[in-house]
């Protein structure tokens, strides 16, 4: 009886993993098969032509790059400093608990709501207009919970003996945090940051009203320009225009580029983490 | 002999639990004082009161006084970073920073505002020499401290503590994670260091207390049971409880 249970249990576990792997591969292969046909040098380096039915997606690649880098530049310092406050400084557990609930709630907000918020606050109230700046700030808020959680976890994982050693040498709290805790927590924080960039690169709804434009030939030259972006480009190709049979393959090509970009970013996160871990083992 | 540290009716609580009961002890200057006793007797708490490391723990309370050179270290006008610069510490859990060997020793200097590179460098070398580890690390100062063995790491931590020129060094069971050979090296080192520093060492190892110390304190359940010259305390304990502990009736 125990033996059969064991066998069934193992079977279930293996089956689940198989289903997960299969769906992952299915998505990958589906996107690759459909998208790879249109990808060539022109596709990656030229703007769209002939009413989006020809040419490339270069402005969208640049746009997504600007938006996600902008988002991380804004949210990394803010997120790390908040995590430091939550883990090292907030003596009153109640306060820290309330803030953490808030951060988690932020993580659960649907992304289109962030888009509306960005429209109301950054585009209208601050008057940044539909621009890289508005989009980056909106995406920045969206990925804040990722940054804060990753930073918190890696700061908490720093062994207390390092803090004690530092304080016992006469360092004050800030020196201890800055010179011992943060460097030790860095791999985890960087991983969170890179995952955040990946998330920001893939989001459509937050930039819908705040940054993205349907079509633009020239590249942005200031933070206040609107930009094309990869996820929005897919959306636009699938919902607008009249030549669907020409647009759909381009949409798949764009999806493949976006997918590779995000996978590449995540891969980078893994490489950085293992590199630093190897250098600083304890 | 002058007392470097003096406690006056020192009481200490974790929450409602009292772990030090009216402890009165004088730590003689430039000698080794061992504090021994079974687990939970309050010896580490007493040690950590000397550099105010207990301050880090929430929900604790201290009564009484600890005088360093006749000044109360718990008074408001004491700067805690200056105190900890004067009173260094070596821990039970061997804890070099995840940094290079050099940066470990230089850390204390840097946090106290040292900027001049060559001055930092010469002090680092000096400290590594005093901690009897210079020969083993001279070729790999910029390698990670974790490349060293456990015993070497502990001597590195001693070098790190020495670098800021403390007057007192507190050792909290420094050998409990080490093998016998590394332990012997640390004990030798403590012998040498006492010429320049006041040393307090907490240990639950009776033999170690006998080997390294000039004075020994025996603690039990938060009480300082007996304190005296090590030779005398080990050969002619005055308290029955000390005698029972030394002869292995409990502990």
Describe the protein's architecture and organization.
The complex is a heterodimer of chains A (282) and B (251). With 282 residues, chain A is mainly alpha-helical. Chain A has 11 helices and 2 strands. The longest helix of chain A has 36 residues, at 244-279. Chain A is globular. The model of chain A has no long low-confidence stretch (mean pLDDT 87). Chain B is α/β, with parallel strands linked by helices and 251 residues long. Chain B is 37% helix and 26% strand. Chain B is built from 10 helices and 11 strands. In chain B, helix 3 crosses helix 4 (117-130), helix 3 (101-111) packs parallel to helix 6 (150-163) and helix 6 (150-163) runs parallel beside helix 7 (180-193). The mean pLDDT of chain B is 91. Chain A binds chain B through residues 91, 159, 161-172, 175, 179-180, 183-184, 279-282, and chain B through 51, 53, 56, 58, 81-85, 88-89, 91, 93, 95-99, 107-108, 110-112, 144, 146, 157, 160-161, 164.
Q: SSE layout and pairings?
A:
The complex is a heterodimer of chains A (282) and B (251).
Chain A: H1 2-35, H2 41-45, E1 48-49, E2 54-55, H3 58-89, H4 93-108, H5 111-125, H6 132-156, H7 160-168, H8 173-202, H9 205-208, H10 230-239, H11 244-279
Antiparallel strand pairs in A: 1-2
Chain B: E1 3-14, E2 17-23, E3 26-28, E4 32-36, H1 43-50, E5 60-68, E6 71-72, H2 80-86, E7 87-90, H3 101-111, H4 117-130, H5 134-137, H6 150-163, E8 168-172, H7 180-193, E9 198-203, H8 206-212, E10 215-220, E11 223-229, H9 230-235, H10 240-246
Parallel strand pairs in B: 4-9, 4-10, 7-8, 8-9
Antiparallel strand pairs in B: 1-2, 1-3, 1-5, 5-6, 10-11
Helix pairs in contact in B: 3-4, 3-6, 4-6, 6-7
């Amino acid at each position: 009886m125990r033996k059969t249970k064991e066998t069934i249990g193992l079977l279930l576990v293996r089956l689940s993993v198989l289903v997960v792997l299969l769906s992952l591969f299915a998505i990958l292969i589906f996107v690759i098969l459909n998208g790879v046909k249109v990808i060539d040098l022109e596709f990656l380096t030229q703007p769209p032509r002939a009413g989006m039915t020809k040419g490339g997606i270069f402005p969208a690649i640049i746009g997504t790059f600007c938006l996600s880098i902008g988002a991380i530049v804004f949210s990394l310092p803010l997120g790390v400093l908040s995590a430091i406050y939550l883990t090292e400084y907030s003596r009153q557990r109640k306060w820290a608990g309330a803030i953490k609930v808030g951060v988690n709630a932020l993580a659960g907000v649907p992304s289109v709501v962030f888009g509306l918020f960005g429209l109301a606050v950054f585009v209208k109230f601050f008057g940044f207009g539909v621009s890289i700046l508005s989009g980056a700030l909106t995406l920045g808020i969206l990925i804040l919970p990722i940054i804060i959680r990753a930073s918190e976890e890696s700061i908490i994982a720093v062994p207390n003996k390092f803090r004690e050693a530092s304080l016992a040498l006469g360092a004050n709290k800030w020196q201890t945090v800055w010179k011992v805790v943060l460097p030790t927590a860095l791999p985890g924080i960087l991983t969170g940051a890179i995952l955040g960039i990946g998330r920001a690169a893939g989001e459509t709804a937050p930039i819908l009203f705040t940054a993205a434009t349907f079509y633009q030939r020239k590249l942005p030259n200031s933070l206040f320009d609107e930009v094309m972006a990869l996820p929005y480009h897919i959306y636009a190709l699938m919902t607008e225009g009249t030549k669907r049979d020409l647009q759909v393959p381009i949409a798949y090509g764009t999806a493949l580029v976006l997918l590779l970009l995000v996978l590449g970013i995540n891969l980078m996160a893994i490489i950085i983490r293992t590199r630093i871990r190897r250098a600083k083992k304890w | 002999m002058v007392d470097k540290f003096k406690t006056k009716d020192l009481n200490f609580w974790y929450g409602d639990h009292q772990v030090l009961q009216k402890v009165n002890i004088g730590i003689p200057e430039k000698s080794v004082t061992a504090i021994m006793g079974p687990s939970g007797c309050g010896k580490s708490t007493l040690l950590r009161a000397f550099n105010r490391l207990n301050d880090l723990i929430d929900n604790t309370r201290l009564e009484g006084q600890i005088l360093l050179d006749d000044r109360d270290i718990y008074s408001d006008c004491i700067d805690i970073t200056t105190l900890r610069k004067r009173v260094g510490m070596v821990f039970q859990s061997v804890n070099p920073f995840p940094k290079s060997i050099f940066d470990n020793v230089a850390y204390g200097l840097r946090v106290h505002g040292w900027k001049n590179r060559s001055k930092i460098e010469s002090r680092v070398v000096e400290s590594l020499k005093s901690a009897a580890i210079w020969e083993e690390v001279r070729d790999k100062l910029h390698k990670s401290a974790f490349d060293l063995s456990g015993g070497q790491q502990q001597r590195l931590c001693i070098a790190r503590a020495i670098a800021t020129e403390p007057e007192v060094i507190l050792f909290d069971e420094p050998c409990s994670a080490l093998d016998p050979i590394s332990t012997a090296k640390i004990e030798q080192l403590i012998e040498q260091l006492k010429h320049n520093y006041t040393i307090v060492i907490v240990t639950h190892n009776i033999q170690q207390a006998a080997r390294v110390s000039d004075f020994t304190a025996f603690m039990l359940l938060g009480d300082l049971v007996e304190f005296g010259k090590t030779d005398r305390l080990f050969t002619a304990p005055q308290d029955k409880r000390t005698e029972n502990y030394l002869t292995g009736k409990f502990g």
